[in-house]
Predict the 3D structure of the following.
Amino acid sequence: MPDIWINVPFINIDDRNLAERYGLSMPYCAFVEVLDSLGAYKLQSDLEETYRKNPSERDAFDKDLLKLNEQINLMDMLLNRRAFRIFHLPGDSTHTWYSPGDDLSSFSGKDSMFVSRIFEWYLEEVSSSLKSGDWKTPDEIAGMIDTYQQAKSYGVDISHKCMEAEVKYNRLNAFKYCRIGYLIFGGSSLLLSLLSLVGYGRYRKLKGIFFILILGVFLFQMYGMALRWYISGHAPWSNSYETMVYVAWATVCAGLLFMRRSYLVFSLATIFAGVLLFVSGLNWMDPHITPLVPVLKSPWLMIHVAVIVAAYGFFGLSCLIGLTNMSIMSISVSNNFDKIKELSILNEISMWIGLALMVAGTFLGAVWANESWGRYWGWDPKETWALITVVVYAIVTHIHLLKSRMTVWLFNFLSVLAISAVLMTFFGVNYFLSGMHSYGHSGDISGALIWVASAFIAVFILGAYSYAKTYKYIN
């Protein structure tokens, strides 16, 4: 019923300047509002100017304009029945698929009659079924379309099992429940660890129960990732959303690796995984399963990205251990100095593992770059920042060689600050710098910058206070 839907205000607008410039309602406008009295598209001239700009030169208004245009284009495709490509042209070597709103003149004979009439018939029956509640006829027509697809899609595998898996994946919403599980069980485990740290018992049975629960959540996350891999046909770490989920998984792996040495580190890793999954669910992350861009269609995607992103999980865990140590220093250094030294050793081990993975991943990336672009290294922003990250962590891991009694504090403080290099490599390059690696981002992260800046201000305050307490204890 396009005549009705064009008047329904549900296209989201966040930018007031954008709404005022084109006379649109806020926070939602109707499709009809973006057309002038002659039916022309109001955004067209500004869009052309925006597309002429280099991506790095586009301001907030340009980005909001492109975001609005994307919503309108999607709405236009739905209204004109071009959103769903469901008809395959028999004998077409390029395996082109057509939607009901496309030019269907390439079809001939009975195929032409079928594709030109079947969808309209389906919509008519849907309208009737909405009133009667009987969906038998629309289901039969959908079955006819399915039969046509199976008969005419030569050379293309339409897997019903894959479609069923995608429906199951969407209904499970695995990563949402994993986020809740990690935060609740990880938080409870951390509370038990802190109580044990200050001498209120060991809680071994409770820790064992929470370990089993966290392990169950971890296996459920693996199942969700495996489903996504099966549905998409490629490794599930090809964009910001997928890599964030993968880093969460790698972080829990790191926590499991250190669990026998420190249940506290395992608890921190679990909470961090929950936070990462929380970030992956924010509105600037795109969870849609989409085809790979051409440059990512390589077996090196699975190898290079898996190794280098796993390093981020260990660096993240190292950052958390550093924060924990500084917090303990701020409370009492004298009573917990042995625990601080033990955690510092685990911090260094985690950092060395992350650094080894980062170096290996960088070399693997060079091999992939040679395969894709014909050169191993070109000082692209992503490559440059990967090298900077390696250098930063190489420096921090050698801080213990300094002959200073404040080395333990300095190492933990720098292990927290070093994560900024990872954030720039992982996010900043994709969103703020233009280069050959700027294909993995999902949206605008300007709102997240406020939280990042606030977090680092808090880190510096904690660092200064813990330094004062440690200096007083040592001297």
In short: The chain has 17 helices and four strands. Residues 337-373 form the longest helix (37 residues). Residues 2-79 form one domain. The radius of gyration is 27 Å.
